[in-house]
Amino acid sequence: MRELVVISGKGGTGKTSLTAAFAALSKNSVLCDADVDAADLHLLMNPSIVTRTDFQAGNEAVIDKALCTECGLCRELCRFNAVGEDYVIDSIACEGCGVCVDFCPVKAIAFPVKICGEWYRSDSRFGPMIHARLGIAEENSGRLVSLVRQEAREFAEAHGHDLIITDGPPGVGCPVIASLGGATAVCIVTEPTVSGLHDMERVMRLAAHFNIPGMLVINKYDLNPAMAQDIEDLARERNVACLGRIPFDPGFTRAMVQGKTIVEYEKDSELTKTVKAIWEALITSPVMNARGIKDLSYMIKPKQGENVL
Amino acid sequence: MLISVASGKGGTGKTTVATNLAYSLGKRARILDCDVEEPNAHLFLNPVFRDTETVNAEIPKVNMELCTLCRKCAAICRFRAINVVGKTVLVFPELCHSCGGCFRVCEPGALTVASRELGQVERGEAGDIAFIKGCLRVGEAMSPPLIKRVRTYEAKDRINIIDAPPGTSCPVISAMKGTDFVLMVTEPTPFGLHDLKLAVGAVKILGIPHGLVINRADMGDDRVREYAREENIPVLMEIPFDRRIAECYSRGGLIAEMVPEWKESFQELYQKIQSQVLV
User: Cβ–Cβ of A11/B142 closer than 8 Å?
Assistant: First the structure.
C-alpha cells in the first residue's frame, strides 16, 4: 500500500484543489482528508456518506457539585488552570490528564469519555473517500488524523486499492506529524512568497525528520518568478524534486465555486495539462515506485478506447 | 486592547491583515505571532530581535536506583508517556503533556524534572512596534503551551495584535481565548466560507465580539457576504484581488507602506474594531 500525502506548511497554497485534481486523474485510489481541523476536500468531492462513526478520544473531568467539598486540591493540582473559582471545570482548558480525578479526596470528579467529532467512509465520483469532522474547539486532532489514515489504509488493503491520496493539514505541529508516519512520500505544494518559502523550508525539515521523501509543486509561480527559482534551488539542495510549476490562475477558484476539480471544469486548458503532467510525474516518480513493487504508471495509461479526462 | 486575527482556513490573509494593521498603528501596536507552527509576521515587519528564550515542557526523568517498579506513574498517565516494561521504566517525552501526575504519585521520589524543548520565543522591535514571535521546534507536536508563553508578553497599554494559527482546534483557541476582539479574515470562496463557519463557531463558544475582513473580495462568489448578513457579523474591510497586492506580499512588502490610502484604511479598521468592542 502506498500513500501520497499532500502538505504545504503554509495554508492556502492550493493543497486541496490539487489533491482533488489528483483524485480525478487517478485510478484505483482511496481518498483521505487528513485536514480534520478545517476539512474542505468534501466540498469538491461531494461524497455520499456510507458509514458514520463517532470519534471518541480522551476524557473530560466533570465535578459533581453535590459531592464537592471545595477543598481546593484540584485547583492546586491542575496545570492547565481548568478548574474555575466556582469549581466548574472549563472543558476547553481541560487537557484530560485525570490528575484531579485521581486525587479528589471525596471522589467528586467524574471522567467521562469525550466524543470529539466523527469520521466517515463515503463514496465519491472518484472512488472511496475517508474523511472526518473534528468538533469545534476540540482537541485530539492528531489522533483523528491517525484514525482516518488507518481506516483509509485498512479499506484500501481490503478492497485492492494500490494508492491512498491524502490531503494533509497546514503547519508543522500535531496534526501534520500525525499525517506523516508511514507515508510513502509527501507532495509539498508551495507558492513563491516569503511565507511560502519560509513555511516550505520548515515542513521539508519535518518530512526529513520522519524520513519521508518529498516532492515539490510550485503554485502561482508567476507571482514572483525569481522567488520560485529560489524555492526550486532550495528544494534541489534538499534532494526534493520539483515536479512542476503552476501559474496563478483564477480557474481554480471558479472550479471550486462550481464544486468541481480543475480537470473537470477546464477539460483541455493549459492549466489542466500542467496539472496532469504534475500528476504523471508524481505517480511515476522513483519514490512512489520502489524496486520490486507494482509500478503505479498503469494509473496514467488509458485503457484501449477509454476517454481519459 | 487585545485583537486576535484568525481565519479557519489557512492562506486567507491573516498575516497580511495583522502586519498591515500593526504597521498602520505604529508605536501604539504590539504584535504577537502566535502562529507558532509557521510564524510569518517577521517576514513583513523585519524586526530586530534582542532576546531569545527557549520554552520547555516539564517531563519526568527516572532514577532507577530509587524506583520500586510500583507502576503508579504508568497507571496515572493518560497519555501513555511513561510505562514500565520488565525492570525498566520508559519515558516517551513527545507524548508527555506535563500534567505532573506521575511526580505526584511517585512515592519513593524516583522522578526528577527534565525538559523537552517546545520552541523559542523571540522579542524585539520592528521600528516602533514591539514584536514577539513564537516558533515551534520542527518535530514538536504541542503548540498551545508555547502560544500561552508568547501571550504572557501582552501589554495592557498597547494594542496587542495576535496573529493566530489556522484551524479551529486547541492552538487557535489558545490564541483567541481572553482577547477583546477576533478579527476574522476570509476569502469569498466555498473553502473560505466553510472554514469561516467553523471559526465563527469557535469564537461563539468563547463569546468574543468579532468582525470580518474579506480578502480577494472580488474573486469567488457572494455566499460569504450572505452568511455574514444572516449571522449579523459586521464586514469591517474588503481587500480586492489585485495582482500588485499579491506581488507586494510575495516580496514581503506591506500594502500600507506601498499605498498610503491603505494605511488610512487600516487605521479606520482599528477604529471600527474599537467601536465594536465598546458596543
Answer: no
